[in-house]
Predict the 3D structure of the following.
Amino acid sequence: MSIPKEPRQLMINIMYLVLTALLALNVSAEVFNAFKLVDKGLVKSNKALDESMEPLPTAIRDGAKTRPSLATYAERIDPIQTKADEISTFLKGVVTTMIEDGGERGGFVEDRENPGTFTDDLKKAKDYDVTTRTLIDPNDPDGGLGNEIKAKLEAFRDSMMTYIDDEDKAAFQKEVAVQIDDDTWKKKGKASWAHMNFDHMPLQAVIPLFNKYINDVKSTEAAALKYLANKVGAGGTTVVLDQYTVVSAPEKSYIIKGEKYKTDIFLSAAAGADSNTGITYAVNGRRINAKDGVAKFEETATKNGVRKYTATASLTDPVTGETKSFKKEFEYEVGERSVTVSASKMNVFYIGVDNPVEVSAAGVASNQIKVSMSGKGGGKIKPAGNGGYTVNVTTPTKKGEYAEINVSAPGLNDKKIFRVKRIPDPVPKLSKSRGGAMGSGEFKIQPGVFPVLENFDFDAKCNIVGFRLVRVPKRQDPIVSVNRGGKYTQESKGLIQKAKPSDKFFFEDIKCKCPGDPAPRDLGGMVFNIR
């Protein structure tokens, strides 16, 4: 920005800068109060972490005494605590140095009403020279003491990983609170991590940062001690929470409608825990009682089909007091006693349509039933859900030939035979009639000939391929039109529109093709007398 040459404009710019500074001073008072509140919260949090960690070393050592193989976990307690104390003491010392840089009584403001005592207000709360002078070395491109703090935090973080078993390191990495942001300062073009965090930062703003670092250290220490506690458990029981799973043990998974479904639900641990203290159970959110670590769930089956339920087991860790819940979904199938009666002469599959088949076996779950197809007819069968199947066939069977549906299940092997036929011949119609007398008005408005599959319950559609239309006027020669398709062509329409009373119309050689037909079939003809 260039400096204005006119004195008046220069004065206006200076006044603007002064006003901006005054506004900043007004805002900063609220900001610094916020820094103080945050700092107090962090101090309380650090104290709470210390209290929560107090019982852990004793619990770990007691648990490790039960088995020689667990002794290694007790040996890791002292080095973890020592390293955490060392870096916490170091960080507190840096804070004390910066505060005492202000002079008498550590740089705190003296209480006017009680001479000789001091408030928690800093004399130089807004002073950024002391932080820059202490933490940033202008002659050191690496940032001086500020970057030494960064190095110590990284070394502490890495050292904690050495006390974790190799197979658990990936999971524990997520519990490590000490994290260093090495991307932001590079993106912002700062000289180093220390320059980004401490350069020209007010003292009151830097102190909460240090208490946050201490908090991260204590949180990581607590996570490491909880890890050791989980490895040895309380009272000698190995507790590895992430290896628990809910188990449902039903008396049977397929029941008849009206019967009760009964199952035992319990918590199983791969590590071999033998104590169920502190475990509660629920099914679909409803608490159920347990005896000797086993909860019994039962419900009356009222509907057929697959029924699902969610079982939850909640475990309170005896060492840390932390509660974790484990959920899993289970299912059982409800069937119904029934009698099946089938007419053997009606066992027919039709070519070109989906033939539905239902397969069931009383007392056998549907997922245990295996269905296949063999024999003649070129058939294929595929599941359609809920015990249903769809059969498609391609070739008519001859006398003595059959398509076979094979069913197998535990203790069961059976088959059913079916004949394979073409779809029955459809009936050609004009309007609702197959021939006979028809008024000229009704006759002229018909769009063409269409086939009707009478008394055939399958969803199938046949199409007229073509026919020969002949008009025979009274005392005149016949006029012929060869029609392709079922709808009238322009030539056929012309003949139809000339229809007069006493005329005869012949629909000859009507050809039709139905699903699965390799070639058109002959439907015969129709004759209409025009009235």
